[in-house]
Amino acid sequence: MSTSHLHQYAHVLVAYDGSTAATAALQWARVLTRRLVARLTIVIVQEPGQPPTRLAPLSQPPARAGLREVHVVTNGTPWRRLLIEASARDVDLIVIGKRGDSQQTARRVGRNSARVATRALVPTLLVPRGSEVPAETPHILLATDLLGGIAHGAAGIAMLAKALSATVEVLHVNVPMEQQALPFSGRPPAGEINDARVERELEALLQQLTARASLATGVRISARLRSASSVSACIAREAHAAADMLVLGTRPHRAFGVAWLGALTTKVLREVQRPLLLLPPELPSESAQPSAAVLDGQRGGGVHGHRHYEPSPGSRRRRDF
Length: 321
Known about the structure:
Blueprint: E1 11-15, H1 20-36, E2 39-46, H2 61-64, E3 68-75, H3 78-88, E4 93-97, H4 103-119, E5 124-127, E6 139-143, H5 149-164, E7 167-174, H6 195-217, E8 221-227, H7 231-242, E9 245-249, H8 255-271, E10 276-279, H9 292-295
């Protein structure tokens, strides 16, 4: 089966600052690099006003055995420099620790990791403190919607799942209050929503889309449907119960999706204490990579280079949602 439509992970970049979370991220990056037979670039950003990062843990021979590693030391704002290095070096995956050790470092590193994750144009893996790569078959939970998210997510994680010999499960959260907008025949003539009927139709559609994604990627994928009033809380609960890694999409192109899914991603980032892989709206294989100048803030617009709405002359002014 051809894998040309799948996202390839040939070059991994990991951010290192000496913290416990960064050490866990480095362990994940080295394991993934070894199993993917990829290149590894370790980036150390010396932030102005902060003590130098200890580089001794990077030189341990057992951890580096059989790896093609490059160490890069640079100065500047961490999240900005990481995005510039990722673009300039054409990396396929960014691995970064989620939080620092002390309270002050936790706030600073947390802000940097969140900004990298929500602005990166390649998949980004956020690793919390104390997280270790499972020795046995890991379980990957892909939380997504039904509007193209399953196919996009499966294409993004297929090569990782094969390299880790992982099992993949798709999670879709049904919010009963949103059933009025469902494009299904779940609204009886009386105008009342038949919850059981809607769930059956959602389950059938979820199974159909999952089977299609499994056939396209060559990875066995199962499906799980849950109903909850809070999507982020349900995703966090399911991830803590059964997942070794959670996969989530970032902001899509539509203005409504930017507002709603952007807030959802931020909530899940804060609540989930599992390794979290964030996929950009378009994988690099689907669109051309922008230059480092774009990542350095030279071009206007929102996250991922989306411009805000500008009305044409004479039209009514409209706000992004």
